[in-house]
């Protein structure tokens, strides 16, 4: 089968198309024949070495498809079931073996391509707005990189919870995307002072929570945009990791900062199922819609990484085997 591996840590040029034997599921595992593979920023962290791996390594944590074979002891799935998974390395391939207790069934009303595009991003948004900082009606939230995959879901989900959303984006084209998703205020962070605009919008009060997947470039502006006892949720490093800072910087507003990971919020199979169920529910209701902005053949994963890191993508991106 065709697969894409990182032969070493580095830029997109380290991605290489290889042929591998089709794996067989062991006890407690299922073999999933992929219909689509999700592309996520964490893939670039694994490729670059920011999150070190043992190389060479087939990348990718998320895909959706059909169960082609089941290992001994598996009762959770049967051959032919529509499933999706995230958190198991090796998705950049035509098929992959995954633990049965780390996959979820995809409802009939959700296309497999959408499931591959949305599961990791959507469950990230779920834990951010429902469990990391539970958003309440009437609050104003700030979402950075709002036209990205997680950002688009955050905007819609926060609106569905009754919040007012301030969204930051990098271009007027992306600004229109988030306006169409319901964002109440849009800031072009390359052209405007984010903290000054947030102060203007909130009457100087700042916001109670900021969801920041950008990292280094937005960190200081985020600190200045927080309200008293506000929470900065820095969940990604699109521009690079947040630089070292003194805890005293949080003292002016008694602010909080957290650097959460999805995988610490879906540790058990029950947590995984509950998170996926909440996501599929808002998708089915229409409260959250997922735009697949780009599709790349699996063999062109390098071009997909270049587009993602070059901020040339909108919404979700999938690789098609």
Give a quick summary of the entry.
By secondary structure, the protein is α/β, with parallel strands linked by helices. The chain has 8 helices and 16 strands. The mean pLDDT is 95.
Could you characterize what this model shows?
It is a single chain. This protein is of the alpha/beta class and 321 residues long. Helix 3 links the parallel strand 9 and strand 10. Strands 3, 5, 6, 7, 8, 15 and 16 form a 7-stranded mixed sheet that branches. The chain has a 6-stranded parallel sheet with strand order 11-10-9-12-13-14, sandwiched between helices. Strands 2-1-4 form a 3-stranded antiparallel sheet, with no helix packed on it. It folds into 2 domains: 156 residues, Medium-chain alcohol dehydrogenases, catalytic domain (Quinone Oxidoreductase, Chain A, domain 1), CATH 3.90.180.10; 123 residues, 3-Layer(aba) Sandwich (Rossmann fold), CATH 3.40.50.720. It is built from 8 helices and 16 strands. The mean pLDDT is 95.
Model regions low in confidence, pLDDT < 50 over at least 5 residues: none
CATH architecture of the largest domain: Alpha-Beta Complex
CATH fold group of the largest domain = Quinone Oxidoreductase, Chain A, domain 1
Q: Give the count of structural domains.
A: 2
Report mean pLDDT, rounded to a whole number.
95
C-alpha Rg, in Å?
20 Å
Give the tally of β-strands: 16
CATH homology-level superfamily of the largest domain: Medium-chain alcohol dehydrogenases, catalytic domain
